[in-house]
């Protein structure tokens, strides 16, 4: 008996003396379930949300062409995301491009995980791949609105492949790639980890859900496309009013609901920070809708449905980079700012530029994205109700300087504008030189539904 006691005591001492090995973190079922739902919500934004929103704003003879372009672009780029996009955007490479270690989703299995924004918390990598796919596929589809009603279907697809590869992927890598919070165990380890991150992450730019990556990126490309493809035949001489604002309202509402997946899902966890992103997304959209409606009512005498839904989209755009960083009151101020600035972008700046941006992608997405990115730097301040920026080495919210953060945000805005602008000019030029950007004038007058797809949206 004494021998047994000694043996147990000895084994206990050995166990205590051995170093403790932490088990690998296991995904939480609640987080996983939420990310599946969030991903589905973003899919809904593309099909049917964006298609109906854009489709209702074009003339009846081009309704199906817009639906086709948004749907097929989303699906085509979804495939490319799995082939090489995920790897280029979210693996370690240099400051501008990731590598090809996960091309064809090599090494991604049901057991592999992706980091969140909390130490020791992960989600299944497959759902992270799918969630980021929806961002990568819907962002280029936004550009369709700038060149609607006169672009060749083949030209749209070829341009999107080029732009996705050389603009979306590098900007996503620059802004969002980092090795995850668990790499920040000490100051030295933190410096080493940050050195492997994307260029704009290293500059300190913050973008919760895509103000730079999605909206500025796509918005400036749409402006470049509208300039290079030229105005629609009859623009300024013939009426080009939206043919079905009811569908635009339905599509805009689907975008709003889906945007909660976009913004709240970007938290990657179902917790209080996700609840904050939900509230700020809701409030900013309400504020922007109110602002746009009353400005239009005051200046034009009548508030319009198109104006109200445009205001809602402007609010969604402006809060996208900020939703997890700013407080509720900050989000309301940002929403009002978006309603004012984007109204001017659509009704004033557009006329000054003399550009036929068919569905006002630049005025809403690019301008709204710029306002959102810059005001994120202001209202993320804890002194103004924001969360600040977390210091993973100290494991607490770090010291916050509005001036310093604004400089970082300017890096994000400027880099996105220049990078996407240059890539867009080159890509549109290459497409025009090879297969041509624009349909024939007879086909444009007939309508792209029949001339490009042999179908009619409506039968009289």
From TrEMBL:
Principal localization?
Answer: membrane
Q: How does it sit in the membrane?
A: Multi-pass membrane protein
Keywords for the protein's UniProt record, in alphabetical order: Ammonia transport, Membrane, Signal, Transmembrane, Transmembrane helix, Transport
Tell me where in or outside the cell this protein is found. Cell membrane; Membrane
Q: Which InterPro entries match?
A: Ammonium/urea_transptr (IPR029020), Ammonium_transpt (IPR001905), Ammonium_transpt_CS (IPR018047), NH4_transpt_AmtB-like_dom (IPR024041)
Please state every residue range assigned to the domain named Ammonium transporter AmtB-like. 33-458
Tell me the leader sequence span.
1-22
Q: A Pfam family for this UniProt protein?
A: Ammonium_transp
| The UniProt record lists the keyword Transport | yes
Per the UniProt record, which residue ranges are transmembrane? 32-54, 66-84, 126-148, 155-178, 208-229, 241-262, 274-294, 306-327, 333-349, 361-380, 406-428
- What's this protein's family per the entry? Belongs to the ammonia transporter channel (TC 1.A.11.2) family.
Q: What is this protein called?
A: Ammonium transporter
> Highest lineage ranks of the organism?
Bacteria, Pseudomonadati, Pseudomonadota, Betaproteobacteria, Burkholderiales
